[in-house]
Design brief:
Strand order of the largest sheet: 1-2-3
Number of strands: 3
Strand content: 15-25%
Distance between the termini: 27 Å
Shape: elongated
Number of helices: 4
Length: about 100
């Protein structure tokens, strides 16, 4: 998983969904993490057909969301994180204004 995907999951707790797909031809289910309605259910993470039930697929994806959120929190608190250092120094406001302008 890319760091940006982890930040997207952790930063959008009200617009991230743990779900499933399947079953496949062997009766197995895929785990999926998508964005919600705001982002048109765009896929963020999917597994192969690993799960015996839809419930087990969704539970595994919920655990993944929790683990990714905890990882992102710790990563953002790490003083060696170059991204945080850039965004919190004098370049930060400039970068944020560019990102906001690109969203518009």
């Amino acid at each position: 998983m890319r760091r940006l995907t982890a930040y997207e999951i952790a930063g959008n707790p009200d617009d991230v969904i743990a779900t499933h797909a399947g079953p496949d031809a062997n009766g197995k289910y895929y785990g999926c993490i998508t964005r919600g309605e705001q982002e048109k259910y765009r896929m963020l993470i999917s597994t192969g057909p690993l799960f015996d039930t839809p419930e087990s697929a969704e539970a595994a994806m919920q655990r993944t969301i929790a683990a990714v959120t905890e990882w992102a929190k710790n990563d953002l608190e790490d003083p060696r994180n170059l991204l945080v250092n850039i965004l919190t120094k004098e370049e930060g406001p400039v970068i944020r204004s560019i990102v906001e302008a690109a969203k518009a």
